[in-house]
Design goal:
The protein is mostly beta strands. It has strands at 5-13, 18-27, 42-55, 58-72, 75-87, 94-106, 109-121, 124-133, 137-146, 152-163, 166-170, 174-178, 182-192, 195-204. Strands 1, 2, 3, 4, 5, 6, 7, 8, 9, 10, 11, 12, 13 and 14 form a 14-stranded antiparallel beta sheet that branches. The two termini are 32 Å apart.
């Protein structure tokens, strides 16, 4: 047990050698892990199947996570699935994270389906491809974020939004600082056949 988390484990563990463990973990309250990983604010619940192998000092982890109620900042889903794999978990995490998310909203904007294919390399997280679908819009983007420091700089390199018959694209990389209490939009300039939209300022995580 850890606070509101419980799990069952099986396999082999050597303190100075190799390990080969399987685990089923129930997360009854994800707020227990706030500020403990690169996602500073999260809530909800979920279940994970984990496989841990390799050296005890620097192991590899793979598995899946599902939830019927997951929050991250102001992004919510009632149907969340993730598959992940990370080598050298202690020293320098390198791997992949695939997300399949349905039925939810982000900052009150609803979506029907989201998917993302993500690469992990230490503190750098690369959104190799990501999209979101809704009756009113279709969004595609890629980019990266660095999670080493408290303020996490996000750069979206390619942004394409189709909204109610109109296309929007970024002319410059979109730059956003992810901070503990809010998002700080440093550089956002979108163009369409009707003109340009410039966004600046902050958005908090509060309702």
């Amino acid at each position: 047990w850890y606070k509101h988390t419980e799990g069952t484990f099986s396999g082999d563990l050597e303190y100075k050698g190799n390990l080969n463990l399987q685990a089923q973990v129930d997360f009854h309250d994800l707020t227990d892990f706030n500020n403990q990983i690169f996602i500073k604010q999260m809530a909800g619940r979920g279940k994970a199947n984990l496989k841990v192998t390799g050296k005890t000092q620097d192991f590899d982890v793979s598995g899946d996570f599902v939830s019927d109620s997951a929050w991250a900042y102001q992004f919510y889903s009632s149907n969340f699935k993730a598959n992940f794999s990370a080598a050298n978990y202690i020293s320098h995490q390198k791997g992949t994270l695939d997300l399949d998310i349905k039925s939810g909203f982000g900052w009150t904007v609803p979506y029907d389906s989201c998917k993302a294919w993500i690469s992990l390399d230490g503190f750098d997280i690369f959104f190799d491809s990501a999209w979101a679908l809704h009756n009113d819009y279709n969004l595609n983007f890629n980019g990266q974020v660095n999670t080493e420091k408290e303020i996490q700089p996000l750069e979206i390199k390619n942004f394409k939004l189709f909204y109610r018959g109109q296309n929007f694209e970024n002319k410059l990389p979109i730059l956003v600082d992810i901070r503990e209490e809010d998002l700080d939009f440093k550089q956002v300039l979108l163009s369409s056949n009707q003109g340009e939209i410039k966004v600046s300022g902050t958005v908090t995580y509060e309702e």
